[in-house]
Hints:
This protein is α/β, with parallel strands linked by helices and 376 residues long. It is built from 13 helices and 13 strands. It starts with 5 loop residues before the first strand and ends in a 7-residue tail after the last helix.
Amino acid sequence: MPSTTISFARGAPSLDIVDVDGLRAAADRAFAKDPAGLTGYGKGTGYGPLREWIADQHDVDAEHVLLTNGSMQADAFLFDAVVASDDTVIVELPTYDRTLLSLRGRGADIRAVELESDGVDVAALERVLKTGAGPKLAHLIPNFQNPAGYTLSLAKRQQLVELARAYDFLIFEDDPYREVRFSGESLPTMLSLDTDPGRPGSGQHVVYASSFSKIVCPGIRVGYLVAQPELIAKIAKLAVNTYIAPNQVAQGIVNQFVRSEAFPASITKVKTELATRAAKLGEALNRELPDARFEVPEGGYFMWVELPKGTDVAALHAAAAERGVVFTKGTDFMLEGGEAALRLAYAGLTVPEIEEGVTRIADAYRSLAAPAVDAA
Ligand SMILES: Cc1ncc(COP(=O)(O)O)c(C=O)c1O
């Protein structure tokens, strides 16, 4: 086995695209400007100035925003507040594996609706609604979906908001990749589409979550929810009972960072680098693994790769690991199916690592397809 394992498994940026110097400077400013705010417990809703900044970004008042330690924590609080055992919840097929685990753990009745390259199959979702499923919420990842890399079209965003209003369920818009768009047009959030014209914050049917993990760094653990103030107040109580308040130091640093010129510069760096990595991954797959079917995403961290029907992704995973390369099996993102698919996360790898990694996966794939050697 090669000495270093190449991992396509982690949705995290490589160190070279994290602005460490910018973060150190932001930390200095944060402690200098607000030592009491950073070192105190703070409030369950999070560090006030960052809450204000996020509220401005989404054109709502600060009472619509709650900050958490990473958006996974926001997801968990939302599910605790809204989803009881046996409640119906719609997810995309495939979807983020941790969301699936979290919903399973809560005993939710999970209905998976096929994801298409322009987002969830809205007609199929409507058929589920027409059966009287009465979902509490629909979890959707609109931009550069994890694991598929696909983006929900504008028309589908509008249709989904209409459906949520008509059938009175919550859309959980889980959107950590929105800013990592490296080609094509940015699309409005469903949160904004749910808002009546001239009435900021009026939408009742979308809860929005995002995070600084993918555009600043995951170690900072700052995520957030945007929702109606009543729901935010309910979740704030859960937050206080869980940890009194989220990490004020991290949020104080993010607050200084996002208000400085370092922030847009850092996003540009992430986007430029990831555009190259995604393109090089596509080229390497075309060259080394012509059986692979995929779309090069317009942003984000992931590419979804389908291999011919009958491919055993578990066997491929094992053969690839022997060759020093790991990825995530398609089956991890689905209640059933995905046996011939895999997710390749390219954000944490350099171009030479991506090329070498694909060469190793292709070798593993050929080893599975090779006819058995006749020992006689
Ligand atoms: C769709 C989605 N939601 C939430 C998260 C969790 O992000 P955070 O680091 O903010 O907890 C991820 C991380 O990969 C993700 O892909």
